[in-house]
Write a structure and sequence with these properties.
By secondary structure, the chain is of the alpha+beta class. It has one domain (3-260). The protein contains 14 helices and nine strands. It has helices spanning 9-16, 47-50, 55-69, 80-89, 103-111, 128-132, 137-146, 153-159, 163-172, 189-193, 208-214, 229-238, 243-246, 250-260; strands at residues 3-5, 21-22, 27-28, 32-37, 97-100, 121-127, 179-182, 196-201, 219-224. The strands form three sheets. A four-stranded mixed beta sheet has the order 1-9-6-4. A three-stranded antiparallel beta sheet has the order 5-8-7. α5 packs across α12. The longest helix is centred in the first third of the chain and has 15 residues, at 55-69. It is globular, with a radius of gyration of 19 Å.
Length: 273
């Protein structure tokens, strides 16, 4: 694991955008997926794994019943991958993990809970372009054919229309378990505003934490000290990276106002004293 401990907001920005300059384009284009966590003790365990018990056996039942009881027009088409993205979006335990293309959105989730301002936070950064170089040939070929860096649900469905077909690719892959990054369909404004990205592994029982330890060159984790959280939060608010924007609707508006007008928690002392 590559942990990078920062000590200032400017250093944080430099680390978030590290390796994003592309000389061939003359532009800044990051290849990293970002995930913010409010504490450094939070890892990359999926909600399906957290369910406990024989969770692997429950995956199919969970998705089947979600599809059964959800509105038939809840997703465009009857794609397994659209249903899985929708289920993740609404809190069903799945093998998926939420990420974002936006480092500032990741910072929001790292600093959104004031009650955790006494804890160091973290932003996980994973290079999805290099991660996808480790995929089985059919999946890599699909990305090459589409000249894409991440999958859409339609692209993934053309290679593996079901979870069983996807898992079969993993079982046959000589390189062992692999990780796929999926750009979900714009099911609602929240997904759009959060610049959402999803990851999932080739086996419901595979652990991304273990996978990353085997590939330390593909990722880094930026450690945000507790004393910087107030500064980061205030600057994100001024940049309009708030619950009101990321969770459109009255619930998001109320969450933003509650946090914005909450008194300062001095358990975490600001770096300016």
């Amino acid at each position: 694991m590559s942990d990078i401990c920062i000590s200032s907001f400017n250093e944080l920005i430099d680390q978030l955008y590290a390796e994003s300059w592309k000389p061939s384009l003359g532009r800044f284009r990051s290849n990293f997926a970002y995930r913010g966590t409010t504490s450094t003790t939070d890892d990359l365990t999926t909600t399906l794994r957290r369910l406990g018990g024989p969770y692997v056996n429950h995956e199919g039942h969970l998705l089947r019943n979600f599809r059964k009881y959800a509105h038939g027009d809840a997703v465009p088409g009857d794609s397994t991958w659209n249903w899985l993205a929708l289920a993740q979006h609404h809190g069903l335990p799945t093998r998926l993990l939420d990420w974002t293309f936006s480092p500032f959105v990741a910072l929001h989730f790292a600093t959104a809970i004031i009650e955790h301002y006494d804890k160091d936070a973290a932003v996980w950064c994973v290079d999805y372009v290099r991660t996808h170089q480790l995929l089985p040939k059919p999946l890599r070929q699909m990305l090459d054919d589409e000249q894409a860096d991440v999958f859409t649900t339609e692209m993934l469905g053309r290679v593996a229309p079901t979870l069983d077909a996807f898992d079969a690719l993993g079982a046959e892959h000589a390189g062992g378990p692999f990780v796929v990054f999926l750009d979900p369909p714009s099911l609602d404004q929240r997904i759009v505003n959060q610049f959402a990205l999803l990851s999932f592994m080739s086996d419901a029982d595979a652990d991304m934490n273990h996978w990353l330890t085997r590939h330390p060159d593909l990722w880094r984790r930026i450690i945000i000290p507790a004393q910087l959280k107030w500064e980061i939060r205030d600057k994100l608010d001024q940049a309009n990276i708030t619950e009101r924007v990321l969770f459109p609707g009255l619930d998001g508006l109320s969450r933003w106002l509650k946090r914005y007008y909450s008194p300062r928690n001095d358990q975490a002392t600001d770096q300016r004293g």
